[in-house]
Amino acid sequence: MLKKFLERRYSTRRINFKVCSGDLLIKSPNTNIRNTVGNLIKEVIKYEKFKPKDILAVIHLTDTDGCMIDEDVIEIVKDLKLKTKYELDKILVDSAEQKNRIIKRNILKKRNINKMLGVTEICKKYNYQLFYFSRHLELVFFNDINPVEENKSKNARLFARKDPSEFIKIFEEHLPPLEAKEYLEKYKESWDFIKLETNSLKRYTNFILLLEYLDSFIDNV
Fold first, then answer.
1. Is 204 strand, coil or helix?
2. C-alpha to C-alpha distances, 155 to 134, 190, 199, nearest whole angstrom
3. Whole-angstrom Cα distance, residue 57 to residue 121?
4. How distant is the alpha carbon of residue 193 from its chain centre?
5. Radius of gyration for the chain, computed over Cα atoms and rounded to the nearest angstrom
6. What is the spatial distance between Cα 104 and Cα 191, in angstroms, rounded to a whole number?
7. What is the pTM of this model?
8. pLDDT digits (tens, 9 = 90+) for 109-148
9. What distance, in Å, lies between the first and last C-alpha atoms of the chain?
């Protein structure tokens, strides 16, 4: 969905977007996250036969999934119909085992996010930046806290029909409240905000800063 938006936004430029799916931040718990991201980039470059000069930037988008919250706001509800149910101020789970799984996932994802936030260049040559949807894209765009598969398909069709200006409005509305004016300061502040309390469960995104980041390179294309 976002690929189409970006292609439409930059349709007058000679820019293509290659999308790689999957949550790399929790994919390989026993490996170095920077190497995991770098290895995927190398695989894509080899497969697509890209040259270094073809890569404008590597944009890494992640869902926060509430990974920054404290353990005490993960609550066990024995008669819960789902294994995990997300709310805007807590996560509900159906068992102690599921709570432990969520805690371990959150620890891993938070650790890897913090590591990648310090990375501005990947594979020693490509511009890199990490951005987020909180808790995920469906919450930001459709206010759907716990989307089911059939809703995702419906939402994708609605998304495709939206005008790019509508996207911008949504991105701006759900950017965390920031005091900074310069890009790098805004970027850091947006991440500091999402790490607070239960913000990583709430409806926020710093995607609008992603556009600002890309625009800084595109002027030279």
1. strand
2. 17, 26, 24
3. 9
4. 15
5. 18
6. 21
7. 0.93
8. 999 999 999 999 999 999 999 999 999 999 999 999 998 8
9. 24
The answer to whether residue 12 scores a pLDDT higher than 80 is no
Contact 183, 190 (CB under 8 A): no
Place of tokens 């995990």: 84
d(CA 96, CA 204): 29
Task: Please tell me the distance from the alpha carbon of residue 60 to that of residue 48, in angstroms, as a whole number.
Answer: 18
Local structure of 148: helix, strand or coil: coil
**Minimal CA–CA distance to 158: which of 176, 179, 141?**
141
Q: Could you state, in order of their start, the residue ranges of all structural domains in the chain?
A: 2-218
Nearest of 71, 78, 64 to residue 194 by alpha carbon: 64
| CA–CA separation, 174 and 159 (whole Å) | 17
pLDDT at 183 over 60: yes
pLDDT confidence of residue 4: 80
The pair of structure tokens assigned to 217 is 């390179």
What's the CA gap between 104 and 29, in Å, rounded? Answer: 10
Q: Calculate helix-pair angle for 183-194, 207-218, nearest 10 degrees.
A: 160
In whole angstroms, what is the distance from residue 205 CA to residue 191 CA? 10
| Other CB atoms within 10 A of residue 4 CB | 14
